[in-house]
Every structure is written in C-alpha cells, then in structure tokens.
Design a protein that fits this description.
Elements: H1 2-7, E1 12-14, H2 29-33, E2 43-46, H3 48-51, E3 60-63, H4 88-91, H5 99-110, H6 118-133, H7 137-142
Parallel strand pairs: 1-2
Antiparallel strand pairs: 2-3
Length: 143
Amino acid sequence: MKLKSRYGFRVHVDGSYGYFRLIPEDLDEDTRRASWQRWKADSIVIDPHKHGLQPYGCGCVLFRDPVVGRFYKHDSPYTYFTSKELHLGEITWSARGRAAAVALWATQRLLPLTSGGAFAQGLKNGRKAALELQPAPELRRRF
C-alpha cells in the first residue's frame, strides 16, 4: 500500500468469488487469507449473479468512504434519484427495479450463507465438477 500512499490512487476489489469463502477447506492458504480488508480496498463489488444463484442484474458496489458515491451519480435510463441528496441505495444496486434485491434476499433466506450448509455444498460440488472437467494445476490454484 506504499504505492497507494505515494500516488494517491484507489484500490478496488472484485468480490465476485467471495462465496467460495464458505468452503475454506477446499481453498489454498493464499485464497483463504484474501479479503478486501487485507488489501485495504476503497471499494468492492459483490456479484451474486456469478455464484449466488441470481439473475445477471443483481450486484452492488460498496465504498469504504460513502462520499465517493457522488462520483457515480448520473442520469441514465436505468437509474433514478428521488432527491438531490446522495443516497447510496439509489446508486449501488445494479438492478432494473428492486426485484433482484428481493430475489437475493429470498434465496439467502432459503439457502443461508453458512459453511457446511446446502448453499456451501452446492458451491463445493460445482467447484469439484469444474476441476474435474479442467484439471490443469494452474486452474486449481486460482480458486
């Protein structure tokens, strides 16, 4: 993080594969230790559409400093603002409407994100199948 201090850039983490933290016994040590806190990230993207059983339009970006959200305020056909004040709920969820957020909530109620639970077992089975289909050692280290 010395470079960040020296040059003043922001660190962003793509947390798309964060669900795999539910199956730590299947991951190598470096992967288990990785986290956005470790990287002192300024923002992180969470994409439940990749491994969270959600449709594509479901995801969000979280900012360490919520004031940064003002840089993302824009006028487009798929966003709207109900006030002139910055409201992160209106700029962080990338869903056309609120149905994706409700779907995520319902899925996580049905399949809680607990290590050893049904959701974690599904991830474990899917990862195992992927590794069997593509058993290259360099692929195993990535996940």
